[in-house]
Design brief:
This protein is mainly alpha-helical. Helices cover 77% and strands 0% of the residues. It is built from 5 helices and no strands. The termini are far apart.
């Protein structure tokens, strides 16, 4: 029993870990592709409204300005 026999017994383990690594890589890449992008598909103006609310909370704009900008955002196509 030479050195070939000693390395050949580990071949199935190496093949198993190779397939496991490839499977994990596919899972990682396809898992990220399946997430729906809610901001761009359902509510395109949602990001603008969040920024508007934050500006009001920080005191950068008044409530009157908030209402005017909010109407402009919701009326835009």
């Amino acid at each position: 029993m030479g050195p070939v026999y000693n390395t050949a017994c580990f071949a199935p383990i190496g093949i198993f870990f190779g397939f496991l690594l490839v499977g994990l890589l596919f899972f990682y890449f396809f898992k990220n592709k399946r997430k729906p992008n809610i901001d761009s598909q359902e509510h395109p103006d949602q990001g603008a409204m969040e920024q508007l609310k934050m500006r009001l909370a920080r005191g950068e704009i008044t409530t009157d300005e908030y209402q005017q900008i909010k109407e402009a955002i919701t009326k835009s196509p």
